[in-house]
Amino acid sequence: MKKTLVLFLIAMASGCGSPYPEVPESFAGPNGENAAIVEIHASPTPAWIFVNGAYAGVTPLDYEMRFDSETRSLDVSAVPMYGSQTRQSKRLQVPPLPKRLHFFMNTPPLTASSNY
């Protein structure tokens, strides 16, 4: 009886896994559609994240970004939660999609009128 129970437990443990398929890091579909999970972080404080003007969430954030054959870039903005910080933006030329994005919220963004 004990031997049967041990064999049963070993069989169950070796077959244990999620009933759902594993989410791939990236996906390529028809018509040049691509998607990937991108880790988005902000420091030293969290930030609100917008992708192409649509609210995506608060950092830290794993966000599925998508583009197709007609998309040339994606705009990602980090909006500060505190008044002493400035909005940060990144334009991603696609393909490829990055695995990670990081915004440092205490750095003022560069502008056309900035002196170097």
Write the layout of secondary structure elements.
Elements: H1 2-14, E1 26-28, E2 34-43, E3 47-51, E4 54-58, E5 61-67, E6 73-80, E7 88-93, E8 100-104
Parallel strand pairs: 2-8
Antiparallel strand pairs: 1-2, 2-5, 3-4, 3-6, 6-7
Record keyword descriptors for this entry.
mainly beta, four-stranded mixed beta sheet, four-stranded antiparallel beta sheet, 42% strand
Mind explaining what this structure looks like?
The protein is mainly beta and about 120 residues long. The protein has a domain at about 25-100. The chain is built from one helix and eight strands, in the order H-E-E-E-E-E-E-E-E. The strands form two sheets. Strands 1, 2, 5 and 8 form a four-stranded mixed sheet that branches. A four-stranded antiparallel sheet has the order 4-3-6-7, with no helix packed on it. It is globular. Residues about 20-25 have low confidence and may be disordered.
Q: In this structure, how is the largest beta sheet organized? A: 4 strands, mixed
Helix content: 10-25%
Q: Per the principal axes of the C-alpha atoms, what is the gross shape?
A: globular
Runs with pLDDT <50, length 5+?
Answer: 18-23
- Strand composition percent: 35-45%
Strand/helix succession = HEEEEEEEE
What is the average of the pLDDT values?
Answer: 79
Spatial gap, N to C terminus: 78 Å
Give the radius of gyration.
Answer: 21 Å
Structural class: mainly beta
Discrete helix count: 1
- Number-wise, the strands total 8
